[in-house]
Amino acid sequence: MRRWGRNLAKVEATIDLTGSIEVSSQLPAVEGQKQVEAEPTQGRGSESSRVTDPKCVCTVPINPSVSLGFHSKLRAKQCKAYLAPDVRVQRKVQGGASVMVWLRPFDLRLHDQPALFHAAQTRKAVHLVFAWSDEEDEAEGGWQIAGTAAAFFLHHAIASLDASIQQRFGNSIVVRKGSSAAQAVLQAALDAGVEEVFSSHSCEPSGMAGHSVDQSVQGALQDVGIKLRLFNSFLLYDIKQIRIDLGTYRGHFGTLTPFHHACMAQRVEKPLPEPPVLPAPESLRDDGLTSLGFTSMPVRANGTVLNWGASILEHWNISETAALEILRRFLSPGGGLQRYEQGRQLADASAVTRISPYLRFGMLSSRFMFYEMKAAGAKEQSIVYWRRLVWRDLAYWQRSMFPQMRDKPIRAHYEGQSWNADPVALRRWQTGQTGFPLVDAGMRELWTTGWMAQNVRMAAAILLCEHLNIHWIEGEKWFHHTLVDADQAINSMMWQNAGKSGLDQWNFTMNAASAGKTQDPKGHYIRRWCPELSKLPAQYAHAPWEAPEQVLKEAGVSLGPKGTYPHRILVDLSTAAWKSAEAIREQRKRSRDWINDQGYDLIVIPRGASVAHDGQKFRVFTKPEYRNSGSRGHTDDGKGKGKSRSKGRGKGRQNWDRERIDQDYGHDCASSGQKVLDEYMRAWGA
Fold first, then answer.
1. Residue 238 and residue 83: Cα distance in Å, rounded?
2. How many Cα atoms are found within 13 Å in the side-chain-facing hemisphere of 32?
3. Facing residues of 128 across strands?
4. Is the dihedral of CA 351, 356, 357, 362 positive or negative?
5. Helices (H), 8-148
6. How far is CA 218 from each of CA 185, 197, 256, rounded to the nearest angstrom?
7. CATH numbers and ranges of domains, the chain
8. Using an 8 Å Cβ cutoff, are 442 and 347 in contact?
């Protein structure tokens, strides 16, 4: 699937996000530049499909209601905002004593922002620069940020921070683009005439986009005598210093308990206050926020805009103030923390924070959150929630140890496993039309809001990987493009574990029907996101196929190709789960050298991961049904509990009803958001 290109087409449209569009006159050509026809580029979907109608590939930059400073700058630079800046480094130095803060996509806040705090301590004017390189982002291929829901959220996070800075300090953020981040940062530093740049360490693994950018920027600045000071602002711990002691068993390598124990050797640094001042310096050239293209929307052949971002804005207050308020309410007496231990499994998120996107973009400091949780007694009230931030650090530690884990199995001998490549089944899963209401509601919520609760994510992942036997990378890619909190480390750790190639194979399963009855016992979540089922009694909301014909008729529900809701994509989940497990067992048979005498998978411990076992083969957690080649994973028939541990024995084979899958996908859905999604998928050529 393809993302709409960010190149300028024949017209520019300014959208107020309410649906009305004002089309301005054609932009004048800039000297030395040609008008460029828009081309579809990568993002928000898989890589294989193409937009079939060339009339539908132009883009529309959205100018939301943000700070007046950004608005005036953009109006003055309409042409320049959409054309690539000069990539040559101009060695121009401007006078005055000042320093520069290089803002990153993960440190967009004022509280506990070490780079801002220490820059303010110099008592000099502070240049605030957000640097971006389209070329480096596009080099990420299917994992680039531009064109995703997360990029849309990021745009508004930058705009919100800029508005706060203007209001409090009279300063503002400058956006700089370049052929590389190093070129953009260096040119901005030279233009500003600074001798020192402050920023945050990236937590990405060495050799990938994160640390290579840190290193290249540092090298470029050092070459001209400019100092770069980097601070840890994103995680609780310095993950580069974490070493797991495998000589004492505290749990399997790469799982939470031994990692958490290793973290205890470090102290979580106390959060810093907001900077007291951020004096405004002389102005710098500003490429403009919309030049990033993060809010570009596709335009239909008839000239109207397919504005998938509007619904995201309806569901999120994208600001640092909102993040702090959400945390305060959650931790306050009577807030979500007190209900979390019992209510965290609920699909409607009434007992969870929905704070993940704010952490993802650094709008909320993890260290600040840690100490606020500690003061509120979070550890005593919910040990599960207390460990959430440690899980986050674990994901980044895993990715630093296994830098290819976003698209290569950590258990390398699982490469080559047999997967189901049915595009129709994948599309039904992506668009929330599997016939399992909990999963369908979750996938529709994901498309509409960019978010869904953790347990619903798990139910969706199990249906995709364990029951449909579709490669976990397909789910990871879809989440990468549709989650506003899309985080490659967390996303890849989850999907590796769901696909059973990660360090901590999920040792449980879920039945999408019975799990729904546990997570949404009254059916409120289903009624919200699957309105075609809204009139069904709660007892049938998660299993409409169990409802008598008269009940379906009275509720206005008809199942099947020409009905209001599809048949289940699979009927016998137990045999489907056995088939996917059999594919893993067959792959393991081809990799005997990577299995020990007890049937556990082996991996090579990466350099820097352990106290004394680096470079050695070591066992990792392996589900009993894989260690015992004849076992059969248990999945209930919809009448038991939503989760169950793997146990039991037996054989079976999956009965795919491909004709039903093909036919049912075309059913009509009552949700307007679903219709937008369907149209978007068709435009991709999916």
1. 39
2. 5
3. 101, 173
4. positive
5. 68-76, 114-121, 134-138
6. 10, 9, 33
7. 82-290 (3.40.50.620), 311-401 (1.25.40.80), 412-684 (1.10.579.10)
8. yes
Q: CA-to-CA distance for 412 and 409, rounded, in angstroms?
A: 5
Tokens of 187: 């040119």
pLDDT of 78-94, one tens digit each? Answer: 333 322 333 334 433 34
Query: Each residue of 415-453: b (16+ CB within 10 Å) or e?
Result: eebebbebeebbbbbbbbbbbbbbbbbbbbbbbbbbbbb
Those residues whose C-beta lies under 8 Å from the C-beta of residue 35, and which sit 6 or more positions away, are 8, 10, 29
The per-residue pLDDT for range 124-180, each reduced to its tens digit, is: 999 999 999 999 999 999 999 999 999 999 999 999 999 999 999 999 999 999 999
Taking the whole predicted model, whether its pTM rises above 0.90 is answered as: no
- The structure tokens listed for 339 are 């209900």
Which residues have a Cβ under 8 Å from the Cβ of 472 and sit 6 or more positions away? Answer: 461, 464, 465, 495, 496, 498, 499, 501
The strand ranges marked E within 78-225 are 98-103, 125-132, 173-177, 196-200
Q: Annotated binding residues, as ranges? A: 340, 385, 485-487
Residue 335: DSSP 8-state: S
What would the two tokens of residue 266 be? 């470090």
By residue count, the chain amounts to: 686
* CB neighbourhood size of 286 (10 A): 22
Annotated binding site for FAD: 340, 385, 485-487
What are the structure tokens assigned to 154, written together? 């990021």
